[in-house]
Specification:
By secondary structure, the protein is of the alpha/beta class. The chain is built from eight helices and eleven strands. The termini are far apart. The N terminus and C terminus are likely disordered.
Length: about 290
């Protein structure tokens, strides 16, 4: 365990984050690596978790070089409840506490709801929802003993409205939104903030790592399925750190994302009409891709 003049735990509103201990899941690439970088720049001590040890060590090495960051790497399969809880235990043992938990690890699933392989869907729920809840439960125990902290759940704008041919993924994020809203109220008396970040399309390898759960098209795993590249992950990282400092409730990365969610809430009928056409387009594009491989 790290000893010496240890800074006080918990995150003060508007305060500096230097010396705070932050756990980031899915930290080996994309949004997770970007959040780790933004927190390292603030002077946080980091516990980085992911399944891919090689990529995890690469991210850690770069952050040590750039920011002289104090980093613990913990290879973790967040879909395993035991490993999710062990991540928090190892972090507390090494650093003496946990101030910030960023539940970022996640994966997508592509396919119509009536065609989804249920084993695929269960696995995505284990990663996106149950793993996040297990890590939250373990971290909250530590934060209560310390007198406070911050939990950040990385959701998505499609946790606010359905995504055509991505209903399985949307369902995991709807679940995360619901649990987060309840936990925010439940944890307030413990001085624990809960921040939900809802990115829109982001430039990461997310789509290539999504499960393809379309009968006969499983071989297309690893392809990119989004038309545009979205915002840079670094923008999500910086915005997330700002939200932690402010103790914000729910965060959108761009004005367009916020307006899209606003439109979905106020005009659900119009949105459904639009999504019907989007579904046809996405399905046709996917099928054309299959034909091009024959």
């Amino acid at each position: 365990m790290t000893t010496g003049n240890r800074p006080s735990f918990g995150v003060e509103r508007g305060g500096a984050l230097a010396g705070k201990v932050a756990v980031i899941t899915g930290a080996n690439r994309g949004i997770g690596a970007a959040i780790a970088g933004a927190l390292a720049e603030e002077g946080c001590r980091l516990a980085l978790a992911a399944r891919n040890t090689e990529l995890l060590d690469k991210v850690a090495g770069q952050l040590r070089q750039d920011f002289d960051a104090d980093i613990l790497t913990v290879p973790t399969d967040i879909s395993d409840e035991g490993q999710a809880r062990a991540l928090i235990e190892k972090t507390e043992s090494h650093f003496g506490g946990v101030d910030i938990l960023v539940n970022n690890a996640g994966m997508g699933i592509y396919g119509a709801v009536d065609e989804l392989d249920l084993d695929d869907l269960r696995h995505v729920f284990e990663v996106n929802f149950f793993g996040a809840v297990a890590a939250l439960q373990a971290a909250v125990q530590v934060m209560r003993r310390q007198g406070g902290g911050t939990v950040v759940n990385i959701s998505s704008i499609v946790g606010k409205f359905p995504q055509p041919l991505g209903g399985g993924y949307s369902a995991t994020k709807f679940a995360l939104q619901g649990a987060s809203g309840a936990a925010r109220s439940e944890l307030k008396r413990d001085n624990i903030d809960l921040v939900v970040v809802c990115p829109g399309l982001t430039e990461t390898e997310f789509s290539q790592n999504s499960r393809i759960s379309v009968p006969g098209a499983e071989h297309r795993q690893g392809e990119r399925h989004s038309l545009t590249r979205g915002v840079e992950a670094s923008k999500v990282g910086r915005r997330t750190v700002t939200a932690i400092k402010r103790g914000e409730r729910e965060v959108y990365i761009t004005l367009f994302d916020r307006l899209l969610v606003w439109f979905a809430v106020l005009f659900p009928g119009v949105l459904q009409w639009l999504l019907t056409y989007v579904t046809r387009y996405r399905r046709r594009r996917f099928e054309q891709g299959e034909a091009g491989e024959d």
